Amino acid sequence: MTKFEITILGCGSAMPTTLHHPPSQLIDIDEKLFMIDCGEGTQLQMRKYKARMSKLHTLFISHLHGDHIFGLPGLISTLSLLGRTADLNIYAHKEIDFLLNPLLTYLGNHLSFKINVFQLNPNSEELLFENKTLRVTSFPLKHRIDANGFLFERKESPRHINRGMIDFYHIPVKQVQEIKNGADYLTPDGNLILNEHLTYPGNPARRYAYCSDTSYAPEIIPYIKNVDLLYHEATFAESERTRAEETFHSTARQAAEIAMEAGVKKLIIGHYSSRYSEIGTLLKEAVAVFPHTELAIEGKIVSL
Q1: What residue numbers bound the domain in which 182 lies?
Q2: Measured between alpha carbons, how far is 287 from 269 in angstroms, rounded to an integer?
Q3: Annotated catalytic, 228?
Q4: Are both 195 and 207 inside the same structural domain?
Q5: Of the candidates 59, 61, 64, which has an alpha carbon nearest to the alpha carbon of residue 46?
Q6: Domain endpoint, select from 148, 182, 200
Q7: For the chain, how long is the longest CA-to-CA vector?
Q8: So what's the pLDDT on residue 108?
């Protein structure tokens, strides 16, 4: 199975605490790292959990509240100190320039690499990145400012060659790749051997959706339908539902309701309010609706 891992670097919210770090996650796809959000101290969390900064490929910023972006100056500076030369791509809303432009002016010629900023569409679904193995899309969330969720899809891999059957039919090497790509095989005497007899199924597609920050928004369900793993913010307990509505955040129960309605396989909740020194209550409220719920904890690694 090809690698697809999510590492939680931070799962707190805006008010700093000693219990949780500001939001950030790493998505490891075959040793290539993609970062979602970059709260203050993210570079230290990468060091703590032994993430290789040289493998960092692209950053995706869900929205421009400080707890999701204040780690960018430190991370960019550290990458330059480490001698990075490859371009760094950042997907964010257009106002990110107000943070990045003064930083880049300050760093000047000392920055060893180029930063490319790509503007997110806060109003509709959009394909952001795609290669042979990975597709990343964004979709709108419901927050006080423009905010986007992200969907990472590890594509289904090509079928695996059944070497025994290839040898049995004496199939020429030059046709093996065609068979791997789905072709049938016609023997010299005219018999058609179906592809399913010559190959094994490839690794299935795997999907991870990230939704933070957002109020309860059933309209996001079509974007995250049946994903293998959903991360959804759960800033408040049900006792603070009014506060959640006022601040455009979700309760743990609401996150679980979204997971249940979307038919996801597993839910991880995070973005905890600083008022909770013990987050077991949030888990209890979510599990009552959606049993396959876990808490985000710094250092937690989930493999898909």
Answers
A1: 160-200
A2: 11
A3: no
A4: no
A5: 59
A6: 200
A7: 75
A8: 84
Instruction: State the CATH number of the domain containing residue 117.
Output: 3.60.15.10
203-264-36 Cα angle (round to 5): 80
Each residue of 36-59: pLDDT tens digit? 999 999 999 999 999 999 999 999
Rounded CA gap, 188 and 191, in Å? 8
* Cα distances (angstroms) measured from residue 29 to each of 154, 155, 162, 196, 222: 8, 11, 26, 28, 24
- Residues 194 and 236 both lie in one domain: no
Give a three-class secondary structure readout of the chain: CCCEEEEEEECECCCCCCCCCCCEEEEEECCEEEEECCCCCHHHHHHHCCCCHHHEEEEECCCCCHHHHCCHHHHHHHHHHCCCCCCEEEEECHHHHHHHHHHHHHHHHHCCCCEEEEECCCCCCEEEEECCCEEEEEEECCCCCCCEEEEEEECCCCCEECHHHHHHCCCCHHHHHHHHCCCCEECCCCCEECHHHCEECCCCCEEEEEECCCCCCHHHHHHHCCCCEEEEECCECHHHHHHHHHHCCCEHHHHHHHHHHHCCCCEEEECECCCCCCCHHHHHHHHCCCCCEEECCCCCEEEC
Q: Are 108 and 74 contained in the same domain? A: yes
Q: Which of 28, 37, 67, 213 is catalytic?
A: 67
Based on the fold, state whether residues 37 and 165 are members of the same structural domain: no
Q: pTM score, two decimals? A: 0.90
Q: Which residues of the chain have pLDDT under 50?
A: none
User: C-alpha dihedral over 125, 263, 12, 216, to 10 degrees?
Assistant: 70
Is there a single domain that holds both residue 208 and residue 184? no
Q: For residue 136, which of 204, 209, 57 has the smallest C-alpha distance?
A: 209
